[in-house]
Design goal:
Layout (H helix, E strand, L loop, with lengths): L1 H4 L5 H17 L11 E2 L3 H12 L6 H13 L17 H14 L6 H12 L8 H9 L31 H16 L31 H17 L5 H17 L11 H13 L7 H11 L2 E3 L4 E3 L5 H15 L2 H14 L35 H14 L10 H13 L36 H13 L7 H13 L14 H14 L7 H12 L28 H13 L6 H13 L13 E4 L3 E5 L2 H18 L10
Length: 650
């Protein structure tokens, strides 16, 4: 490899990188044609899984508990607590949950790792300072009073849509988590907790509850909603019983309608777990079909290895498969083409054509036609996955699958994406015009992620899809979308990345779309973005960005260790901006060459996926597998071709 690296243009080097990375991906394709990789979050999900089992008083799987304990101890930070991402700062809520789970498993509270965690929690004001969802869990276990949790009356489900606080005005993930939680908050059950484990030692004797106003919340809204919370708590005993029961019944009906089989409510862990506890408090036996399938959905999120185990927040097979197909189509070998064709055949029937999901509230006249992130999530397809799948199908009909009939699937996907464009020209992930920003000020929204507004990265993807399908760059919808991206571009030239960390991801996404729409390298918008990517390249030739870039008082890019996925995004962004011949691109390819392992893949422990900024991050285990291959193969193809322009929307 050293001799290969000496070649200035890297032709021989990139061929070797592509060959080995492609071979590795082909080995990981499932028998039915799809790919799915681990999706890892922080300590909270595996900890909550342990506590769910004991909440329900199920017979625990001792070996599974042991393995989860191994995992939780391994990811404990050097600071004594648990972070939200690799090498991150201590998070009090994650630390409280991990400590509680380990104590439930049987760890001695006086063991060094437990003592350090407890001391750090107490230094920060104790468990009462944890976030709302952690305090709800503690209330369910009788560790704190429900008075220390913001009141969200179950009657919320009955309010008309014109009311300022309405479920349809919240994001899909908030909706699916909150509806079963409304029942729990109304009935206030107590965990069975057969081992009688408590964590009273995590509370200060006279500790104050976490501030009613989160850093992102405005004082005047906080004062208003705080006063409303006091009123609701006072009035709660006087709610008409008939009205309350009607609201509870409606929550159960709403949840059951969206139960989503073994893929679970919303196909995300918190909603799934809440649905199980809701059925339990409603008296459904463990064998009842609705409760049983909800419980099964949780179990399917487990990752169990030889020495440790954890629970994923969700799974990502559609996303992984679509992106791998793009990378393999760029690799351009017979084996890669055949594998990509099989992957696309797996993807095609997962298009949601018959279910009008919650997105219909805002766009009732639009026909369904999207793809979800998970195996099934028919009520909640998303724009990002849909755009990526449509672009892959469109590309394949000219290359790897010329005989495939993708015309109708592409047309319906395009129609749905077009129908969910927001009024400001951009696209959100799951809904149109989900911009009721005042809702992020309610006490329940201390995470600041109650909404799903248009974002730069999803908008870039949708622009790329439309442009690849032939949408004129001066059509009204395209002009509005491009105008949106130009308005939200930051002064340094970058774009915010909502679903990937962070400005590198957002900038790549925007540049890919703008290139497809016809904005060339001389366009000021594109030029500023390319200059920014070049300026932040690390001295080792790679690119990296820490999750800390999401902090509210972020002042600009700070150097972070290079990662394989972020280096690939930067390279793809620069090539979309017409910079394939820039020395920075050559240095980036060299970094990927140097860091490729013997198995053809790249190591990466750092989290580069976004869940909720400042609250929840994701480690996509597939990202360092397929994005570097994509970037290197594109570099080779552009250098070998007559044109330096990227021909696709992604």
């Amino acid at each position: 490899m050293n001799q290969i690296a000496a070649e200035r243009d890297g032709t021989l080097a990139v061929d070797a990188i592509i060959r080995d990375a492609t071979a590795a991906l082909l080995k990981e394709q499932r028998a039915d044609g799809h790919w799915v990789y681990e999706l890892e979050a922080d300590a909270t999900i595996p900890a909550e899984y342990v506590l769910l089992v004991h909440y329900l008083a199920e017979e625990p799987n001792l070996e599974l508990e042991r393995k989860i304990g191994v995992y939780l101890r391994r990811i404990q930070g050097g600071h004594g607590g648990w972070p939200l991402y690799h090498d991150g700062a201590l998070d009090i809520s994650a630390t409280v949950k991990a400590y509680f789970a380990l104590k439930m498993i049987g760890d001695d509270p006086d063991a060094p790792h437990m003592k350090r965690a407890r001391e750090e929690v107490l230094k920060r004001g104790g468990a009462a300072k944890a976030n709302v969802f952690t305090r709800i869990l503690l209330a369910l276990y009788g560790q704190t009073s429900w008075n220390n949790v913001p009141t969200v009356p179950v009657e919320l489900i009955l309010l008309p849509r014109w009311f300022p606080i309405h479920l349809s005005k919240m994001s899909y993930w908030a909706r699916t988590v909150i509806v079963p939680l409304l029942v729990l908050a109304a009935k206030k059950p107590l965990a069975r907790n057969p081992r009688r484990v408590d964590v009273r030692e995590l509370f200060l004797p006279h500790g104050k509850v976490a501030s009613k106003r989160a850093p992102h919340q405005k004082w005047y809204w906080s004062a208003f909603f705080g006063a409303l919370d006091v009123l609701l708590k006072w009035f709660e005993p006087f709610w008409p019983k008939g009205l309350r029961q009607r609201a509870i019944d409606e929550c159960v009906r709403w949840t059951t309608e969206r139960l989503n089989g073994e893929d679970g409510l919303g196909a995300i862990y918190p909603a799934m777990a809440n649905s199980v506890m809701m059925y339990d408090v409603m008296g459904y036996a463990p064998t009842h079909p609705d409760r049983a399938i909800a419980r099964t959905s949780v179990e399917k999120l487990l990752v169990i290895k030889d020495d440790e185990a954890y629970c994923q927040p969700c799974v990502s097979p559609v996303w992984d498969t679509a992106l791998v197909c793009h990378a393999l189509m760029e690799a351009r070998t017979p084996e890669a083409d055949a594998a990509a064709a099989r992957g696309l055949e797996w993807l095609k029937p997962l298009q949601v054509l018959d279910v009008k999901g919650d997105w219909e509230e805002e766009r009732p006249g639009v026909r369904p036609g999207g793809w979800a992130f998970q195996y099934r999530n028919d009520y909640y397809p998303d724009l990002d996955d849909t755009a990526v799948v449509v672009m892959a199908l469109d590309r394949a009909k000219e290359t790897v699958a010329p005989k495939a009939d993708y015309k109708d699937a592409i047309a319906r996907g395009r129609e749905w994406v077009e129908g969910l464009q927001s009024k400001n020209g951009g696209w959100g992930a799951f809904d149109a015009d989900n911009t009721y920003y005042y809702l992020n000020n309610i006490p329940f929204a201390d995470h600041g992620a109650l909404l799903d507004p248009p974002t730069e990265d999803v908008t870039g993807r949708c622009i790329g899809m439309l442009a690849q399908l032939g949408e004129p760059h001066d059509s009204p919808r395209m002009k509005e979308a491009i105008d949106y991206l130009e308005r939200v571009q930051l002064k340094d030239g970058s774009w915010f990345g909502r679903w990937g960390v962070n400005y590198i991801y957002g900038t790549w996404s925007a540049l890919a779309g703008l290139n497809a729409a016809g904005l060339d390298a001389s366009t000021p918008t594109v030029r500023r973005a390319a200059d920014w990517l070049i300026a932040i390249q690390n001295t080792d030739g790679g690119w990296g960005e820490d999750c800390n870039s999401y902090k509210l008082d972020y002042k600009g890019y700070e150097p972070a260790p290079s990662t394989a996925s972020q280096t690939a995004w930067a390279l793809l962004g620069l090539m979309a901006a017409g910079e394939v011949d820039h020395p920075a691109v050559v240095r980036g390819i060299r970094w990927l060459e140097k860091n490729q392992q013997a198995d053809g893949l790249w190591p990466q422990e750092h989290y580069t996926g976004g869940g909720f900024p400042r609250v929840f991050y994701l480690r996509y285990h597939g990202y360092p597998r397929f994005f570097p291959l994509w970037a290197v193969a594109r570099y080779r193809n552009l250098r070998a071709g007559n044109s330096r322009r990227v021909a696709y929307g992604l």
